[in-house]
Write a structure and sequence with these properties.
- There is one protein chain.
- By secondary structure, the chain is mainly alpha-helical.
- The chain is built from two helices and no strands.
Length: about 120
């Protein structure tokens, strides 16, 4: 009986020695998991917020509102495009007119300069 006890005790000690590295590894993994837990919880919370926002956004009433808003924005864009097309044409005409006026101003300044030179020479 004593020999049986000693034999079992030796087996348990050997098993315990073999388990020590595994226990240490598990303890280290547990510590790392505890350290990472707040970050993971924060990520989960953020994901839940995004999911709630997405669910709210994709509800049928939101989709209808979004489609209405897109249609309004498209109509505004079309109106602006039509207005801008006529303004672009007007802008080009205004540019040409400005160039013509600049040319006339340059001619008159040249004539005035020539007249001033003639008057100074006399």
């Amino acid at each position: 009986m004593q020999a049986d006890y000693e034999s079992r005790r030796a087996e348990v000690q050997n098993g315990a020695e073999e388990l020590k590295p595994l226990i240490k590894e598990l303890e280290e993994r547990e510590e790392k998991a505890k350290e990472a837990l707040p970050q993971v919880e924060e990520q989960i919370s953020e994901a839940e917020k995004q999911l709630a926002s997405f669910d709210e956004f994709t509800s049928s009433s939101s989709k209808a509102q979004l489609k209405d808003q897109i249609a309004k924005e498209q109509a505004q864009a079309d109106t602006l495009m039509q207005n801008n097309t006529s303004q672009i044409t007007d802008l080009n005409a205004a540019r040409k007119q400005m160039q013509m006026w600049k040319g006339l101003v340059a001619m008159f300044e040249a004539k005035i300069a020539i007249t001033d030179e003639k008057n100074n020479l006399e």
